[in-house]
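ok trying this again, last paste got cut off
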Amino acid sequence: MTDTSDLTASLRSIGVATADEEPRYEPLTGGVSSEIWRVDLRRGPICVKRPLPKLRVATDWFAPVERSQYEVRWLRLAPEIIPDSVPKVLGFDPLLHVIAMTYLNPSTHRQWKTDLREGRVDHAIAAAVGDRLARVHAATSGRADDSHNLAAKHRHRGRELPTTGERGHAATSGCLKGVTR
C-alpha cells in the first residue's frame, strides 16, 4: 500500500479534508502519467490526482510534474466555455501537485479510454470530444491573457509521441508525425 500521509496533509492544507478526519484511499487503475485515487471523506467521495515524474510505460519517459498547474487551469477554464464538461476542481496544492476534484462514479460515467482499449468505438463520442476541444480552443485562442499558453505548455508531450511511436509502433509513426506537426 502506498503511503498516503502526504496526500492527507495536502488535502487538509487546501481545505478539502478537515483536520480530524482520516480519508480512505482507493487507488484507481488506468493512469500511466498520474497516481489517481478515489478518496472517501465525510462529505462523500472525491477524486485525487498527482502527476508522476516518470510515466508508467515500458520506455523511460519523464514529464515535469508542474504540468498539474496547467491541467488545473484548463479544468477551471473549460466549464466557463462548456458548463459541466469536466470534473470540478475542489482544491489544488501547487507544492505537492495534488489536484482534488469531484468523483465521477464509473457506474454513471463510462471511460472512453476503456471502451477504445476493448475495441468499442463510438463515433458520436469521438465527434463530441472533438467538438468540445474545438470549442475550448476557439474560445481561448485569441485571448489576451495567457490562456493560450495552456496548449503551448502541453505541445511538448505531443512532440514526444512520434519518437515513442516510431520505436514501438512503426505502422503508426507516420500518422503520429502528421498529427504532431
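PB: full thing came through this time. The beta strands are 24-27, 34-41, 44-51, 89-93, 98-102.
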